[in-house]
Amino acid sequence: PKKPLLLSWFLFLLVLVLLVSCYILSSNSLSQWDSHPLQYYHRFLNQTRRVNLPPHRVHPKHRVKPTGMYETTERPTVPPTVAPTGARFHQAYPRNYHFIMDNQEVCETETPFLVLMVPVAPKNVAARDAIRQTWGKDSVVQGQVVLTLFMLGLSGGADVQEKLRQENLQRRDLIQSDFMDTYLNLTIKTMVIMDWLATRCRSAAYAMKVDSDMFLNIDNLVVMLQKPGIPKVDYLTGMLMWNRPVVRSKDSKWYVPEEMYPEPQYPTYTLG
Ligand SMILES: *[C@@H]1O[C@H](CO)[C@@H](O)[C@H](O)[C@H]1NC(C)=O
Predict the structure, then answer these.
(1) N or C: which end of the chain has fewer CB atoms below 10 A?
(2) Residue 196 CB coordination number (10 Å)
(3) Cβ(69)–Cβ(254) under 8 Å?
(4) Ligand 1 atom 10, closest CA
(5) Nearest of 89, 83, 74, 85 to residue 250 by alpha carbon
(6) How far is the CA of 122 from the centre of ligand 1 (A)?
(7) How far apart are the first and last CA of the chain?
């Protein structure tokens, strides 16, 4: 009479052990999937040699879309959208462009601790007004002078240009340069921002480039910049990106042809 009891105990334990190991295995792979999905694809499909940061470290706006993700070994079949190297880099040089509005007195009357430079499309009055009413509204933060300025290119329309003139007359916070304001020209906008800071606002202790669709916790930023140990010169900070692959999928917003940048990965940079 004891034998069947022993057997059923044995069977019960066996099933229990199996269930527990199944659970451990599945939860393990699930949590790894959560944090390193790309490495998983990499392992399974063996298609790319990317080392990606876990996606939760990347702002949703800048995440690579899954469609273009696994095509890196293919060469783009369309002709490049840019001219061969030399001309392109020459064109992007900031001194090829000139300020139409520069509000250069804003850094003469005051010595800002922090200048916030917001690249924004000329037409996007709504974004500028939202910033002026929220995180950009205070000129003194944590006892420090803070300046918020908007960086624009040309819109092409005379009506838009006249509205911009009026807007700047009222707010004195627009910086405009004479390049066409398009997505592919955002590199020019970035360089022109640095050009303006280097030529019109040398007294500023820090400057930040911040997109117009972002919420900036400016108090946190100023507190952070005043902490002991934060360098006062040669200091660049942001959300650090490293080993980021150059996107070679022509459908991607971030497509860059090999003619323009031959390396498979970008050097370490800060996002945005
Ligand atoms: C960038 O701006 C320059 C100068 O205005 C213009 O010639 C060029 O067409 C623009 N590039 C793009 C891609 O819009």
Answers:
(1) N
(2) 23
(3) no
(4) 180
(5) 74
(6) 15
(7) 75
